[in-house]
Design a protein that fits this description.
heterodimer, A: mainly beta, 6-stranded mixed beta sheet, 4-stranded antiparallel beta sheet, 12 strands, B: mainly beta, globular
């Protein structure tokens, strides 16, 4: 079974509108972390936002917010006021503990295109 | 502030050749890992390390070796390159559980 599922291979949004990128996860660990990364066409991986499993409030970083619904095991990324520079691949990832070790598992990504 | 440095950026190998992808970080991060990225597959974990002298396998470890003799360096060795190892390889490091991983710029490897 996939640990991280991103069901939207591609998404389109008009400039200045908000968009939600979906992410569901599967874990039996009580302590885990959820991340979103952006990969523009240049190829680098850019960290956007983090949510810990025990965090009471949804994480926010500027125009990015993470809609964390623990019971539903979802961690959707919301981008407000989309900009042309937001066009990129977006990856959801989960960090789980394995004893004293940690592993980060990625979803397959969602390609976001922002239209002018 | 160099962050995570990967070398080389591009490499072409012949089937059966061996090589080492270098990864170095100057942030004193304990956690380091190697991923490969293939179209439609996202990033898949090859090997990871939680500190000097400690390594473990990830999701797709076959055909790759790692070692962690220092905190700074985490090289990835391809023992006998195969066309299936054609991919983009990323090295990443992290200081704590709550921090985002910092990624290198990637190595694009082609095996012919």
């Amino acid at each position: 079974a996939q640990k991280i599922t991103q069901t939207q291979p591609g998404m389109f949004v008009q400039e200045k509108e908000a968009v939600t990128l979906d992410c569901t996860y599967d874990t039996s660990d009580p302590s885990y972390g959820l991340f979103w990364y952006k990969q523009p066409s240049s190829g680098e991986m850019i960290f956007l936002i983090y949510q810990g499993s025990y965090d009471q409030q949804n994480a926010t970083e500027g125009r990015y917010s993470l809609n964390f619904q623990k019971a539903r095991k979802s961690a959707n990324l919301v981008i407000s006021a989309s900009q042309l520079g937001d066009s990129a691949m977006y990856f959801c990832a989960m960090r789980e503990a394995r004893g004293s070790n940690y592993k980060l598992t990625f979803g397959k990504g969602t390609l976001l295109t922002v239209n002018p | 502030n160099a962050g995570v440095t990967q070398t080389p950026k591009f490499q072409v190998l012949k089937t059966g050749q061996s090589m080492t992808l270098q990864c170095a970080q100057d942030m004193n991060h304990e956690y380091m890992s190697w991923y490969r990225q293939d179209p439609g597959m996202g990033l898949r974990l090859i090997h990871y390390s939680v500190g000097a002298g400690i390594t473990d396998q990830g999701e797709v470890p076959n055909g790759y070796n790692v070692s962690r003799s220092t905190t700074e360096d985490f090289p990835l060795r391809l023992l006998s390159a195969a066309p299936s190892q054609t991919s983009v390889y990323f090295c990443a490091s992290s200081y704590t559980q709550g921090s985002g991983y910092t990624f290198g710029s990637g190595t694009r490897l082609t095996v012919v």
